[in-house]
Amino acid sequence: MNDSGNKAEVKVQILGEEYIIKGDKSSEYINNIASFLDDHLHKVKEYNSAISRFRIMILGAMNLTDKLHSVQSDYEELKEDYNQLKEEYKNLRDEYNILSEIVEKED
Q1: Torsions phi, psi for 11 (to 5 deg)
Q2: Across-strand partners of 12?
Q3: Residue 16 covered by a domain
Q4: Structural domain containing residue 29
């Protein structure tokens, strides 16, 4: 949320058109997101210069959605790996404690 608690209202340029974006994030954050989107759409336009602005935006949205899904999938895999490692750690710690008790009893 921005510092004043009010919605930020920011003018941004995307594919050469000006938009007014209102949001709970800071002006800087909104500008960064808009700049990222604009850069991405310009790259899409470079590879598909003969298509309409609407199609460029749809292709850009599809590309970014694909990246988002890939990141979410990677995150879920990492979370599963983390949980598995955490369980292995717990088991090893328990085994260590048992072995430590055995060694102490033998001494």
Answers
A1: -90, 130
A2: 19
A3: yes
A4: 8-106
Query: CA–CA separation, 14 vs 55, rounded Å?
Result: 14
Chain segment 21-73, per-residue pLDDT in tens:
999 999 999 999 999 999 999 999 999 889 999 999 999 999 999 999 999 99
Sign of CA dihedral 30, 32, 38, 41: negative
Tokens representing 17 are: 């058109």
Cα separation, 14 vs 30, whole angstroms: 12
**Distance from C-alpha of 56 to C-alpha of 53, rounded to nearest angstrom:** 5
CB 40 within 8 A of CB 64: yes
How many folded domains does the chain comprise? 1
Q: What is the reported pTM?
A: 0.72
